[in-house]
Design brief:
The chain has eleven helices and ten strands. By secondary structure, it is α/β, with parallel strands linked by helices. The chain has two domains: 193 residues, 2-enoyl-CoA Hydratase, Chain A, domain 1; 50 residues. It has a six-stranded mixed β-sheet with strand order 1-2-3-5-7-10, with helices on both faces. The termini are far apart. The mean pLDDT is 91.
Length: 251
């Protein structure tokens, strides 16, 4: 059985399911490479307008990197593997289409990073996050987590390496919504389907502009949005621009 299962359960939506339930869906090097390849294929497929990532079962989204694999590496191989994983994470962060994590159960270590690199996260009552690097004298997720939940909360979570339960995760922005246990994937697919109904170019530009907002002044962000609307998304005739919108209101 492949460690990554790829499904198309809803029109316009690709579902990537981490399938290592015996190891709480821990991320091996091969599994992370498979995720990267699946996202390359999803980006190239014009029929795919949103991607959902989840883990098999209700216990774990992902327990993080597979420590049994890492324990077998010498110092040189361990560094090479770390740098390779970081490149793959950067590629995930730059993925242009909407990414939604269905966080069914725990998301620890690399699993928490994977989830927080997605644009939206839907969890269950049993969902929890834990950023573990400080516990093994490492550092991780400093480049992205503060943009998501602010520097104060990010510092708290990464320095204590404590478990963040579902309701606290919802309150601080780690989760966008909580669904009933057992229906997390369906809830994430419903959100993805709503996104997939819209013209893809506008959705992608929303993601790009919001992701690139950090570090820009208010005026720079304002100018960037207007450059898109007067350039790649320049409106044509009013009828062409709004026909699809008006049709969607009748559904």
């Amino acid at each position: 059985m492949d460690a990554l299962q790829i499904e198309s359960p809803v029109a316009g939506v690709r579902l990537l399911r981490l399938h290592r339930p015996q190891a709480c869906n821990a991320l091996t090097t091969a599994l992370q490479q498979a995720i990267d390849q699946a996202l390359i294929e999803a980006e190239a497929d014009q029929a795919v307008r949103a991607v959902v990532i989840t883990g098999e079962g209700e216990q774990a989204f992902s327990a993080g990197y597979d420590v049994k694999e890492l324990a077998g590496f010498d110092e040189t191989r361990l560094l090479e593997n770390y740098l390779q994983r970081q490149r793959l994470l950067l590629g995930l962060a730059k993925f242009p289409k909407p990414l939604i994590a269905a966080v069914n159960g725990l998301a620890h270590g690399g699993g928490a990073i994977l989830a927080t690199l997605c644009d939206l996260r839907i969890g269950g009552l049993n969902s929890e996050f834990r950023f573990t690097a400080a516990a093994y004298n490492g550092v991780n997720n400093t480049w992205q987590l503060p943009l998501l939940i602010g520097p104060a909360k990010a510092l708290e979570f990464v320095m204590t390496a404590r478990v963040v339960p579902a309701r606290e995760a919802l309150a601080c922005g780690l989760l966008n919504a909580i669904a009933e246990n057992g229906s997390v994937v369906d809830a994430a697919l419903n959100v993805a389907a709503q996104i997939a109904m819209h013209p893809p170019a506008g959705v992608r530009w929303h993601k790009a502009l919001i992701r690139e907002r950090a570090g820009r002044s208010l005026e720079q962000a304002f100018d960037a949005e207007n450059a898109v609307m007067s350039g790649p998304l320049r409106p044509g005739r009013a009828a062409q621009t709004f026909d699809a919108f008006l049709a969607s209101r009748k559904r």
